[in-house]
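REQUEST FORM: STRUCTURE PREDICTION
Request ID: SP-0412
Submitted by: Lab K.M.
Chain count: 1
Length (residues): 433
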Amino acid sequence: MANPLAYRLVEISAAGTFGTVCIAHDLSQGRLIALKVLKESHLHRPRVLARTRDEAALMAQLDDPHIVHVEGLVTIEDRPVLVLEWVRGLSLEQILRAKREGLPMPVAVDLIRRAAMALGTAYTTPDGTGKPMKVIHRDVKPSNMLLSVDGEFKLVDFGIARGEFEGKEAQTLSMVLGARGYLAPERLDGYDDKPSCDVYSLGICMYEFLAGRHIVLSVHKDFHSEALQKHLDALQPEGLSEEGTTRLREILRGMCEYDEAERPGYDELVQQFDDFLATYDIQPDLKGYAREHVLPLFRDRHRVRPIDHPAYPELAFVERNARSGNWNTPPNVDTDVRAFLARPDWYEQREELEVMLLKNPHWSPAPLLELLPKGDRAWWQFWGGEEPPSEQTTYLLGLLKEKPDAPVKERCKRLLQHSDAAVAQAAKQVLHA
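STATUS: Completed
RESULT:
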C-alpha cells in the first residue's frame, strides 16, 4: 500500500515568521495541495507547537467559501505539517505590488465585504460543544488575503488567531502580534482582542486597495482623527459620484475609528456594503477582474525549482517518501484540452484554457502539439492543409514553455525557420526554457 504521506515539492511560495508555505504534489491522490511547514527553529518551543495544533483544530472546524480550507495536521519525520487547499492565485499584497494605482473601486469593496463575511463566520462558528469559537484573526493584511485566477477570495493564515474552542491547547496572551501597520490602536496598548480590531485592519486594507498606498495613522487619538480625515478627503474612487464617494468615505471612517466602540460589527459592515452597492448600482465582477489581471500575473510569477530555493534544505524531509512506492495515476486532462481546442472560438476564450491547465498540472503537451504547424510555412503548404494563425501558434508555444519535453523541442527546432518572425522567436524561447 502506498504511503499516504508521500509528497513531491512543486514550488516554495512563501516564508513567514513561524512557517514556510509550499505547493506539493500529493502522490497518493494525484492532486496539488499546499503545505505549511513549521520552521526548524520553532520545533522545540512548546507554545509554538501548541499554537500550530490549535490552528489545525480551529481551521478544520471552519466551513466558509472565503476561508482557505484546512484538511488537518500530519506528522512527517516527527515534524508537524499543516495540509491546506492550494489556491491558484496571488495574495493582494502581490497584486497591489503590480497595480500601484490600486484596485477598481467595485473590486476593492467586494473583497473587503467578503473578508468581513469570513471573519464573521469565524467568530460565530460553534465548536463541538455548540459554543461559538469567537475566533479573532489578529493578522488581517493584504498578504493574508488571496484572489484566485477564478475570482475566488480566500482569507488565510490563522496562525496567531485567538479563539475559544474545545481541545484548545495554547493559552491566549495579550501580546502585540501581527503587522503593526494594520493593528488597531488599542492592540498596541495590549488590550484584549475583539472583533473591532479586525474591522480596523480591514479598513486599513480597504484604503490601500482603493488608493494603492498604505495609510499611516497616529496612535494618538487627536492626531489619528486628523490624519484619517486628510487621507479620506484625498480619496477619489474613479467612476463614483460625489454622493457615492461621500458614503464610501463614511463607511471607511467608521471602520478606522480610533474608539473601538464606534466601529461597526461584521454583520453591520456587510450590510453597509450591500446597501452601498445596491444604492449606486455597482456590480463587482471579481471573476472578470481576476481573469484579466490576476491570471497573467500568476502565470508569469517568478518561480525557481524547489531544489534551488534557499529554504529547500529545511524542507527536503517532506518529499523523502516520494522516492519509492507505487502511486496513483494522475487524472488525464488531455481529453478536455483537445475538446476545448476543437472549439472554433477557443482562442477568444483562451483564459479558460489557462485556468484548465493551472487546475490540472498533469496535462501533457500532446494536444497543443497537435494544433501546431509541423514545420516552416513552405513545408506545411507543400503537404496541404490550413496552418493556424500565427498569433495562435505563438500563444501555444508560450504555454509549451512550461513543459519543453523532447517532442516539443523537436517541433520548435523546425519552427525556427518559420516565415513569421514572431513564431520563430517563440520557438526559440521554448528551446531556451
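NOTES: The CA atoms of residues 2 and 325 lie 6 Å apart.
Reviewed by: T.R.
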